[in-house]
Structures are given as C-alpha cells and as structure tokens.
Amino acid sequence: MAGETSWDSHCLDHAARQTIQFDTFSDGNGDGNKEATAVSLDVMPDDLLERILSNLPIASIFRAGCVCKRWHEIVTSRRFIWNLSQVLSQKPWYFMFTSSDEPVGYAYDPTLRKWYGIELPCIQASNWFIASSCGLVCFMDNDSRSELYVCNPITRICKRLEDPPGLKFSDYSALAMSANRVSQTYSISIVKSKQVPGNFFQWDLSVHVFDSERMVWSTPLTEVLSGWRGGDESVICNGVLYFLIYSAGGGLPESRHGLITYNLTSRSSHGLLMKSFIPAPCSLTCGRLMNLKEKLIMVGGIGKQDRPDIIKGIGIWALKGKEWQEIARMPHKFFQGFGEFDDVFASSGTDDLIYIQSYGAPTLLVFDVNMKQWKWSQKCPVTKRFPLQLFTGFCFEPRLEFSP
C-alpha cells in the first residue's frame, strides 16, 4: 500500500461498493465448505449502520461518505460525529514536511499504512512552531511569534487567535497545547525566553496562557533565570506545563539540560521555578517532549562520554515523580537505518505511538510504547531532490468532532 493518495480525492475510491461480503464457515466437524453471503447494508437501520461506520479508520469513513447519499448524510450528521468521539481514539498520524521553505507534505496513517497528500490550512512555512492535542493543531509563526492559528487538519476548519502578550521578539519560544475532548475547550501556552541586556547568564522567562473558553490571554509567570535559558520544547500533561531549559554557562558540565514544571491550575508564586528543576537522565544532544495519555515522555539523543555533541543512540524516558525512567532504547540496526544521522532530529507522539525521523531524509520510524515494538513506516512518496533538502514533521490525532 505504499505510495501517495490525494486526501481530497481519497473518498472517491470504490464509491460504487454498497455491499459487504461476510464469510461463514462450518464447525470443525464439517467438511470445511465455505459459503459467501452478500448482505446489503441498505436494509440496516441507521443506528446499526452508524455503529459499523464509526469503527472504521478515519480515511475509510471519508470514503464511506461517498458511497451513496444515505451514507454521506450519516457520516456528516452531528449525531454520528458526536458518537464517533465516544469510541476509541484513532491512531495518531504523522505529517511530514518535504521542504524547508513551503508547508507542503504528506500525512502517514499507521492503521492503513498509507500516505496521504493533504494541504494544511493557515500555515505559511514549515519552520513554524507547532503543537497538537485531541485532533486540534496550533501553528505559530517563526518570525514575530505573534501570529497563531488553531485548526483541525482533517476538517480544515481554522481560527486565528489574538496576538499573545509579552515580548513580540523573544530569543526562544516554546509552544504547547492541551485540549479537553469532553468540554471541547483548549488551552495554549507559550514560554518566552530573552537574554537580559548586557548579561550573558541571566534570561527573562515568561509564561503566557490562552483559554479558549474565555477567549483571553494571561501571563501567570515572569521570572529571571540565572545560568539557564528556555528553549523550544514544552508540553502540557494533566494541567502541568513542562519545558526544557538549557545551560547558559556557569553550571556543572554534566548539567546541560534540565526540566522545569509549572502547575497551570494552581498558578504557583514567582521565584520558585528552579525548585522544580529535574536534571536530564544523561548527556542529551536533543530532547523532545510529548504527552502520551497524560504521561510525560522524552525522546533524546544519547551523547558520547568523550564527545557529548555526537549521539551514539536514541533513548525514550518517562517521568516518574522527579526521576526519569528509561522505557526503551532504539536498537542499533534501526539507528543505522537512518544512514547519516545528525545530532538533532524530529520526534513527536501521542496516544501509544512515537514517531522519529532524521532531518536529512524522509525515513520515518514508529515506536509502539504499548507493544514495545519498532517499525519503519511505509516509504514516503517523496524523494530527496538535493543534498541540503530538509525534512521535519509533527504528530496529530485525526478526529472529526473537534473544531477550534
């Protein structure tokens, strides 16, 4: 099933099929003869047909909507979309950008092991900041870091947010998003970090939060960090904001990365950020934070002892209290499978899946946390056209019922 399928035209495939074949077998004592019975779904009541269609992969639901008028009315009805939100979540997809300049790319569906050519609304460049949660994706421009959009990539419904408060031009920014599937609300956080003028070791850090229910921004935290700066990695789990900080000099040589926690619910007092400091589990060259079923997971490159800027492997850790627990390490054969691997890479995940890819090639590796299984995706339909072409991407949950 390798190859690219246009998402816009995908629902037209096999549109003429209006029956499903059911196979019946005799019991173990019979002769094993097989009978095939064609059952028309037209005779089924709507509620039973809805239950059948709601258990299909999201791409198949789109195709089913093109079978006939009745099916189209069912899969686009409010009742069906609401009921769909009550069933088990679809496996997360991975959208891979194929150019460093334009937001053009393909989305990988791990259920059908298929790539779809889809266009993302709103986003204007592939180097924008991106965060996702429960089917919604937030985009923030990389220049002013004030232009923000929230959209559903599947339904293409998009909304622009008001500009966030605080500094328009920060040295570093980290974007995070958390959506509530029940209340259909979401919050967005931006951690801004800017060097104090004339001081190499002090950094102004501020946290800005958007509440979709009240449609307002707030700035619950401003603080000055000494010897540490913010970066571009953050995530929200169970109402707690986690973000990575990086040594700005003057600290211990083995403490190059650390994690800070901030409770968005209690909005703790200023001046206490460094009390929540959790050191990295090893010498990391690259740390990526993600929310897997409200558990904080970090994927990172493991640096060599004598040359920490060169990675010898990739590890996956889960935060247990204030300790990192290694849950997996990429087998060497998969690490070698990327070919030439830089010290930084793209990685994101949700639910039970983690996606890892090199910036230098469209190769995509999938790790199933529940099954403890590593697997290459189907080959992406894009090829590398020139030596310095870059690839990156993000993970999102394909859903129909959540709109910004």
Q: Beta-strand percentage? A: 35-45%
Indicate the radius of gyration in whole angstroms.
23 Å
Tell me roughly what share of residues is in helical segments: under 10%
Tally of helical runs:
6
Tell me the strand order in the biggest sheet: 1-6-5-4-27
Principal-axes shape call:
globular
Structural class, judged by helices and strands?
mainly beta
How far the N terminus sits from the C terminus, by CA atoms, comes to 33 Å
Oligomeric form of this entry?
single chain
Unreliable segments (pLDDT under 50, ≥5 consecutive)?
9-39
Reported for the largest beta sheet, the result is: 5 strands, mixed
Query: Average pLDDT value?
Result: 82
Kindly state the number of beta strands: 27
